[in-house]
Amino acid sequence: MEMKGNISIHAQNIMPVIKRWLYSDKDIFIRELVSNGCDAITKYKMIKGETGEDFRVTVTVDPEAGEIRFTDNGIGMTREEVEKYINQVAFSGAEEFLKNYTSDDQSGIIGHFGLGFYSAFMTADKVTIDTLSWQENAAPVLWESEDGMAFTMQDGGRKERGTTIILHIMEEEKEFLDAFRVRGVLDRYCGYMATPIYLEDLSPKEEKPHHEEHCDCEDCKEPHVHGTDEEEAEEAKKPINDTHPLWLKNPKDCTEEEYKETYRKLFHTFEDPLFWVHLNVDYPFNLKGILYFPRLKKDFGGQEGQIKLFNRQVFVADNIKEVIPEFLMLLKGAIDCPDLPLNVSRSFLQNDGYVKKLSAHITKKVADKLNGLFNTERKQYETYWDDIHPFVKYGCVRDAKFYDLVKGSLLLKSTAGEYFTLEEYKARNEGKAEKKVYYTTEQNRQAAAVSLYVNRGIDVIVMDTLIDMNFMSFMEFGGGNEGLQFVRVDADVSGLTEDSEEGKDIDQAQMEKLFRDALENAELEVKMEALSDKELPLMLVEDEQIRRYKEMSAMYGQDFAFPDKYTLVLNRACPAIRDLAAMEEGEVSALLCKQMYDLARMSSRPLEAEDLKAFISRSNELIALLARKA
Ligand code: ADP
Ligand code: MG
Q1: What tens digit of pLDDT does each residue of 323-340 get?
Q2: Which of 88, 117, 134 to mutate to test the pocket of ligand 1 (most atoms within 8 A of CB)?
Q3: Helices 609-629 and 587-602 sit at what angle, rounded to 10 degrees?
Q4: Is the Cβ atom of 162 under 6 angstroms away from ligand 1?
């Protein structure tokens, strides 16, 4: 009995929209058809239980016939079912889809769900359903359509229970007749589906493309070698997917090696992650997943993590920022959220209570992991810190809730390579660094200034990543650390001064004039202090806030020349300064002023070429002078 007809009225409106819209992401027809096959098998198993049959979905690429075929041994469909599920319903999420797509929100629908079977028409100019239902006495059905709108339906000849969907691929979509191309899509979207999936490549041997050097398959970030024909034949006997992804298992049944292996497989890498968080919630919502902490590069600008979102083992998309807190985007991993409404627009998800709970839960779990490591494996945690601190700090700056959760586990790394919490730092430096944390941005260049503090028994913290400046401001103003100040070692001498009478009689104004004249700098500010290190004649300091402001504007590309604001601090406890003060103003005093000034400059940054030349010739002059005296 043959029947012709038109698919429900909606389809005619929707098909052109889908075709146009999906243009950028055609690959998903493979996901949709494979997942329908998996669903059909799941349904069959629900009715019959595990029958011991070899349940599988096979994707056959047949370039000679110009076809891709999707075969499953699931429940199949009766004529009535084809009529009901294919001809009439047409789209499971059709109305929703059309509403979202035609609304103002053009950002797309998460995961492009709800297109299902009809996505086949994205790449096919003829689609055939060849199916036989599991039900006793069911007749096989053969359904065919060229455009997804008009169809024919007749008795089929199929003998085995199940369904084959045959796509005759359009001329302009021939790329999908390359098994290698299909394999890439299967790996990406079907790699963790619940039923074994096999890829069968019927292309004639000699025509099989060799992908020996590297390929540009979807998931391949790095070039890698693909196997020989024999190896590929061997591979074809194995399912392309892992039907039991680790994240669906109970954490207590997972080994460390399994976690690492999953990571390497998910991200095609040989690297190991630092550690991970296994998300495993059934109530009040369903969430499974593993988040890995990768090794971050020092300045993670441009670096992106990758969190793969799954829906019941079907891959949906990477980095859905509506679901995963933004700062966690530096992590890598996989999460499966079966209850996530995926055929809705992104802006809907952003305001969805369920999604908010989900993302709050993820944040909390990540914080728990950090706190757990801090509390029980402090030493181990410290070894991770160098790698994870940019992420943790970034998280604090971006998300006040995260900061609240982890603030007790934030570490400061000292120039001596020790790690302290803020509280520990305060306790260690009590009486020496009240409410101040001294830090360096460049341990080598600022070595001289650093050692002044270290020699006084004050810990100096290394703050040398891009995020540190933001982090320090955050700690000072937003972190609830009242009065806390981060001070760079060359910004201040308050930690280095002493209550001493020495040199108190030196006239500040006179010294200022002496240096101003010698350096021909009428703006120079000079201060007198007694520094604990009596050997050190002077220091050049630059106001912390002004310097930060300058650095910030430079970072954001602003270019108005902010005036330098240096202060020269003379150490009245240093005999050389007292001698200089007592000296008659003249050529020698001018030489000394210049030389001292350059030395002070050099302790925070190298001199420019011209200045260095002047410094060297002045040094020679001083040597000659001394030698003559001796
Ligand atoms: P969804 O999978 O979201 O229900 P689809 O458009 O993908 O929507 O499929 C529509 C319906 O067609 C399915 O719900 C199922 O009843 C039927 N169907 C599609 N493919 C198969 C298959 N391979 N075996 C059995 N039934 C199928
Ligand atoms: Mg489907």
Answers
A1: 888 888 888 999 999 888
A2: 117
A3: 130
A4: no
